[in-house]
Amino acid sequence: MIRTAATILRKDLRIELRTRESVPAMALFTVTVYVLFHFGLDRDSLDGELASGVLWVTLLLATVIGVSRLFATEREQGGIDALLLAPVDRTALFLAKAAALFLYLLALEVVAVPAFGLLLLGPDLVDTLPELPAILLLADVGLASVGALVAALAIETRARELIVPLLLLPLLVPLLIGAASATEPLLRGDQAAEGLGRFLALLAAYDAVFVLIAVAVFDFLLDD
Amino acid sequence: MAAAAIELERLERRYGERVALRGVSVRVEVGQTLVVLGANGAGKTTLLRVLATLLRPHGGACRVLGHDLPAAAWEVRGLIGYLGHDPLLYRDLTGRENLGYHARLRGVAPGRVGEQLKAVGMERRADEPVRELSKGMVQRLAVARATLHDPALLLLDEPRANLDPGAAEQLEPLIGRGSGRTRVMVTHDVEGGLTEADLALGLRGASQAFALRAAGVSPSEARGLYA
What was the ipTM of the complex prediction? Predict the structure, then answer.
């Protein structure tokens, strides 16, 4: 199954590198929203809850773009039939799509987090950004697993552009709470924040639950 | 009696409330060719997709290569080659990359990719993105994909669409009678289909109009399906 997932993932990454359809769109959207906040809020810098909320809500909305495009090549070029015709475990498809989305999110954050720091954080708080990776990684696992699940649910629906955000965003509320709450003390300049471990545990539990749910139901989602 | 390659007994398939196939019964022996004839919407593609395990049968019995569908869909998938309207190739990958991807998915030796490209006459254009190839060339690659794993049963939907006579001749050893494979072939070429087939299945309005030896069906009778 891992070998099959790696084959599908390699194919997805090769197509993304050639077409540059998902990651650049996600990054451009995110930077544009940060620019809008920079001018719209008319403040020199943000901190605490507001900064954390702006960071995470924007990343979640950018994830919607990635999820909407996750099965685009399969849908538009018949790849899903080719996968269903092959004697492969369909869980491998979930693993590959979730891994692809995870890598897209990492690539997005390489651009988005420095842009966020530059446009919306004061110079003191920019130093806190190196503390973020653990939160980002845990959140990305959750975003990728729920995103792959929702993308598969929407693949055969005609109104998939509506279905993806309508299904995805409510499912991401616990993740948003965990990620934003874990990030907020860092963006207050509180490096030794209390409760950080609790919120990281919440994110880890969310990841585990949705990875297990996805593995359990993915086969049925693609069945006729 | 030897096991048949395909045994259908009052096969039924619906899309919601709409019946797409009803009461289809046919038996195809190993190595035989079944041609499926009928007007647009008669259920030909639906039948192919049921046999390919892409759609579940909703009624009747469906046995393919000794396996009951949908229960044994997994076993059947490794044994069939499906050539539908869509080539099932990624346009942003080259022909070689597409075949390599399908070979890895199916556990086929990588060397087989080169053999298939040669067999369909696409060696020289194998490293160009599929989006830059003509429809005929894409169809050649689709044939290479469908036969990559040396399937026992071929499910062919207008297999010679977009092919010039030379290409059609070149692909005969892979998808024609000479392949020695059991074949189910959907075509609108009534005369050609009847000549090539052992059995003929006529579909009209999602129901079976006839299932006879091809030699016993006159072209005029078959053309009546399109009236």
Answer: 0.85
Compute CA distances A158 → A164, B84, B170, B211, whole Å: 11, 22, 40, 36
Shortest CA distance from A14: residue in chain B? B93
Cis before B70 (ω within 30): yes
Rounded Cα distance between A96 and A144, Å, is: 10
Considering only CB atoms, which chain A residues are within 8 Å of B104? 3-4, 7
Classify residue A65 by its DSSP letter.
H
B72-86: average pLDDT: 91
- Backbone φ/ψ region at B150: left (φ over 0), alpha (ψ -120 to 50), beta: left
Measured distance CA(B219)–CA(B201) in Å, rounded: 13
Classify each residue of A172-189 as buried b or exposed e, where b means 16 or more C-beta atoms within 10 Å of its C-beta: bebbbebbbbbbbbbbbe
B79, two tokens: 């044994």
Q: If you search the block for the tokens 């019964």, which residue do you land on? A: B25
Measured between alpha carbons, how far is B183 from B81 in angstroms, rounded to an integer?
9
Q: Where are the domains of chain A?
A: 2-221
Tokens describing residue A12: 């997805």
pLDDT-based confidence at residue A122 (cuts at 50, 70, 90): confident
User: What is the layout of strands, in order, in the sheet containing B182-186?
Assistant: B67-68, B59-64, B6-15, B18-28, B207-213, B199-204, B33-38, B182-186, B153-157, B80-83
pLDDT tens-digit readout, B11-55: 999 998 899 999 999 999 999 999 999 988 889 999 999 999 999
Distance of CA B190 to the CA centre of its chain: 16
- Pick from B82, B89, B90: which is nearest to A85 by CB? B82
C-alpha Rg value of chain B to the nearest Å: 17
Contact B78 A85 (CB under 8 A): no
Q: Name residue B154's beta-bridge partners.
A: B81, B183
B93 closest CB neighbour out of A14, A81, A224:
A14
| Domain map (residue ranges) of chain B | 1-79+154-227, 87-150
Contact across the interface for B106 and A86, Cβ inside 8 Å: yes
Q: B56–A87: do the CB atoms touch at under 8 Å?
A: no
- Residue B175 token pair: 């998808």
SS3 state of residue A111: helix
The CATH topology of domain B1-79+154-227 is Rossmann fold (3.40.50)
